[in-house]
Amino acid sequence: MKDTTSPPSDILVVGAGMAAHRFVESLLRDPGAAVRVTVIGDETHGPYDRSALVGVLSGRDAAELRLDRSVFRDDRVRLVRDDRVLHIDRSARAARTRARRTYPYDVLVLATGSFAARPVVSGGRLPGCFVLRTIEDAESVREFVDARSRSLGRPLRGVVIGGGLHGVETALALDEAGVGTTLVQYADRLLPALLDTDGAAVLQEGLEARGIAVRTRTRTTRLDADDSGAVTALEFQDGSFQRADVVVFTVGVRARDELARNAGLDVHPLGGVIVDDTCATSDPRILAIGEVANFDGRGIDAAPAARAMAEAAASQLCGGAERFVGHVDGVHHTVAGIDVVSFGESQPCTADRIEVVTERRRGAGVYRKVVLTDDARTLLGAVLVGDTSGHASLRRLVGVGPRGQLAAELCRATHEDDAPVCVHIGMSQRALLTALRGEGLLTFSGVGARFGREPGCERCTLAVARALTSLAGEPVPQHTPHRQGEGEQPEEHVRADTTRAVVSPVSGGALTPEQLIGIGRIAQDLGLHPRIIRSRIELQGVGRSQLPVLRDRLSAAGLECRTPLLDSGMRISEEPLPLTEEHASAARRGSDEPHRGRGATGAIAWGERQRDGARHRCSPRRADSPA
């Protein structure tokens, strides 16, 4: 279409929503595109931001939702409002509308979106029962609330049925409009597609703090009318009921794919016109974008994905190579003043996906969880509620190997490296890392089989995740409870088959320029990696056989070094740190158990398993002399 000498192509866009607007906007970016575009919408309004629709309930002017109108001032574009395409004649390449007009096309783009679903329930269409999908819907709800409140002489009681993102936003909007609102959810939690149980609990607490009641695991069986015929109450499966003067259903949407079905296009059994990555349907002259489309067996249920489809379709028609790369999983939203981020495999259902809670502050409404592969080498997804800092960096790590941002996430709320992790793993973080390295354990499943990690213990899982991530080659930031004072020994850490040498002058004080040059030459000759850490110089990657040579050369330069021990012994820790009542009781049960060691090779000594199944763990200590 970039050849301006060819006749203009007639592009007919059926639907005038957000996807259609982005398609036309993208198409017209090429000023030389020889096209004639007709956009047909069945609403009296032009394209608007449907995601902000709930604001109309609480008094926002619908005009503020309008999308940029400048695209329709282009001479190549015509917008037809308040008309609907009823039939597509593929053989004649023409579409007929409700107004009995016929529009020919060279390419037709289906952008009809979706419609709001209604549950099949007795009384679901009584006066006062609404869905919320269009500006007309929102204005109808607002007008009803105003009129009904004046009629009854009191504030209304409202119920929102459906606890997804749209339902939560609708409940908030009704609350802001002065309606006492109850949110009813059939599932066991709010936002079940995005949040796990703990993340949803934080959100629910935030809603309840604002005065919005939440009922989960609740199915509505009937809506009753008052003497005027308007809705007055809801009955639930458990026999309870809820008074209500206005009810809004937010139980999902369905693709408006009837035009495609009637035209003989391939439609997914669950709804949506089947498209490929060029947005083409089974008819190459018909494209589908936005919520009416189905790509890779899934509907398009997010605005970013709809916009990406629109841009890909426009690129294809302009001779470009852009393709729709797939669904945009996840959301970043602020609900009731609470930031919510969910992306990737945030709720795994297989045993090889490990959920690691990196931070939980109940009083502050903060919950952060990442999902890792069994070897902790790959981030699969995350749920962040309350504190969503760093979410963009984390999201970029999905599907790739470990990075520093993941290490920082795992260290957000851990305790000191030398303190016991918990009663299930009765050793410190440092000892756990050494033990895993010594036994070659590189997976959660391997650690669980060997050390008995308690899957339900957040402290166990977090500690193992840190250790595995470190073993995978990622530097894990160390938690230091205080600043290192003068004369304290710097922290030192052991790698699998090497150690580090901390270099300093024999007499103390500052290094001379000659000594700095000498350190560099020694590192170069021995293949070591010098680093400056906390105002000290470390030579990393020192092998056991290199230590004598290193010490001799440093001594000749007037320098000395300290190296961490390459092995450790064990001692029994009689009082593991109890973290909860469960931990405390387990510690009390295990305190009198006999113990047996596994030798002096640095392995863990295990307590005998008693009849009640309790275990007593051991903590490492440094051996009296290097092995």
Automatic annotation (TrEMBL):
Where does this protein have coiled-coil stretches?
none
Start and end of every NADH-rubredoxin oxidoreductase C-terminal domain? 335-398
Compositional bias of type Basic and acidic residues: which residue ranges? 483-497, 580-596, 608-627
Q: In this protein, which residues make up the domain named FAD/NAD(P)-binding? A: 10-310
Q: Name one GO molecular function term.
A: iron-sulfur cluster binding
Q: Which domain of life is it from?
A: Bacteria
User: Entry's InterPro entries?
Assistant: FAD/NAD-bd_sf, FAD/NAD-binding_dom, FAD/NAD-linked_Rdtase_dimer_sf, NasD-like, Nit/Sulf_reduc_fer-like_dom_sf, Rubredoxin_C
Keywords noted in UniProt? FAD, Flavoprotein, Heme, Iron, Iron-sulfur, Metal-binding, Oxidoreductase
Enumerate the cofactors the protein uses. Answer: FAD; siroheme
- Keyword Heme included in the entry's annotation: yes
Renumbered to this chain, region (Disordered) spans 472-497, 572-627
Q: Give, as in the UniProt entry, the pathway in which the protein acts.
A: Nitrogen metabolism; nitrate reduction (assimilation)
This protein is called FAD-dependent oxidoreductase
Question: Which species does this protein come from?
Answer: Microbacterium maritypicum (Microbacterium liquefaciens)
The organism's taxonomic lineage, starting at the top: Bacteria, Bacillati, Actinomycetota, Actinomycetes, Micrococcales
